[in-house]
Structure formats: structure tokens, C-alpha cells
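thought: fold this chain, then report.
action: predict
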Amino acid sequence: MGKTLFFTGKGDRGDTARLGGAGRLPKNAALIDTIGAIDEATCAIGLARAQVQDPILQTALPEVQRRIYRLMSHLSATPETRATYTGLVDTDVSWLENLIAELEEHLPELTGFVLPGDSPTGAACHVARATIRRAERRLVAFNDLEPGIGPANLAFMNRLSSLMFVAALREDGLAERPLTLARSQATIPVKSP
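observation:
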């Protein structure tokens, strides 16, 4: 087996190819910006995944990242070949909703907005949440330019930020740190799951 090269030089002029397409497009195109934002989101999830203590999250976050890669391949495909790269479907959204429901079972009722930063791992989950929100905005904007992304792909990205919010609260609880509220000096205790 030969050595893998991690560069090709094909994009040195500032362009790149789409899956299934013969042409090239500039790296500052809306599609590439969208895929880049989603890639940043999965990297932020990876940073959180490297720190989480919750066994449910340790198992679930790699699965989330695999689904995001399916979404990125779906986006990368030309409109003519997009059906070959199916992206996400309703069962992926349902899986995520069920995961969120399972994780929020032991969380306290929130009485205000929570400030990120009550534990290092919780803060990493909040950074992932905010990064996902940016990626979702780019995906929505790109869908306006090139319709046909599929509603499950949009819904998954929307739910994903909710997952990372719940993950942050769970991790703060595992760190035995109360949640700091934005509008007051009050905190909300979080019990470990």
C-alpha cells in the first residue's frame, strides 16, 4: 500500500470540484462557505466529544458527526447527482429528537437564559451549539440559492443545536456546577444523571 498524499494542488488557483461534476467552482462560493461552516460545526462537536463525561454523549456524538458527513456529501453533489448522496432523512431527525428527550430527563426546569461557562466541557458544548447555529444559517441561505437540499437536512441542523445545549447542561451537572443565569445572580443546581 502506497503512502497517502494529503494534498493534490488542484485547488491552488482558488477553485474546487463538486461531487459528480466536471466543472469547478470558486472556493468563496456560497456552497463552499456552507460546507465549510458545517465542517467547523463538526469540528466543534469533536472538541466537545473529546471532553464529555456522559456515556450517552460519548456514544452519540460520533454518530452525529457521521450524519453530518452525509449531509456534507449531499450538499457537495451537483443538483443532478444529489439523489446519489441522500443526505439526511426523517429517521435521522427522529433519532436526534429521541436522543434530546433522553438527555433532558434529569435536567432542571430553566427559569431564564443560561450563561455558557459553568464547566470547561459545558462551555465546549455551548461553542459547538453556537457554531452549529451559524452553519444552519448558511445552510438555509444556500437552500434559497439552490433549492432541493431536503427538509430533513434543515431540520437536523436545527435540532442539533438543541442537542448541544442539553449536552452542555448535562456536562455542567456532571461537573457538579450550578447553571449561571443571564439576568440575575441566581444559579440553578443541576443534578448528575
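thought: worth noting. The chain has one domain: 26-188.
final: C-alpha cells above.
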